[in-house]
Amino acid sequence: MSETTLDLLGLKCPLPALKTRKALKARATGETLVVICNDPMAGIDIPNLIRETGDTLADQAREEDRLIFRIIKA
Fold it and tell me: How is residue 28 annotated by DSSP?
């Protein structure tokens, strides 16, 4: 399946979660969305969003000041 990267660097809460939700709606089942952001609140907001949507958080990592989420569309 395809993988799309969503660069949300510089955006502050609640924009990373809102833009992630919108991007997930546009994905087909099984597609992967990689979200890159640097808002510390995204570390809480995006996993909560994934629990709400029923999608899968395949991986979550921190590289320097960036948070990287790999989400698989359910």
Answer: P
Residues 6+ apart with CB under 8 A from 69: 20, 34, 35, 37, 42, 46, 47, 50, 57, 59, 60
Residue 9: CB atoms within 10 Å: 12
Catalytic residues: 13
Which range (1-10, 14-23, 30-39) has the least confidence? 1-10
How much is the pTM? 0.94
Biggest CA–CA distance in the chain, Å, is 31
**Structure token digits, residue 73:** 């569309």
- Taking alpha carbons only, the member of 27, 23, 20, 26 closest to residue 47 is 20
> Would you say residue 2 has pLDDT above 90?
no
Q: Give the chain's domains with CATH numbers.
A: 3-72 (3.30.110.40)
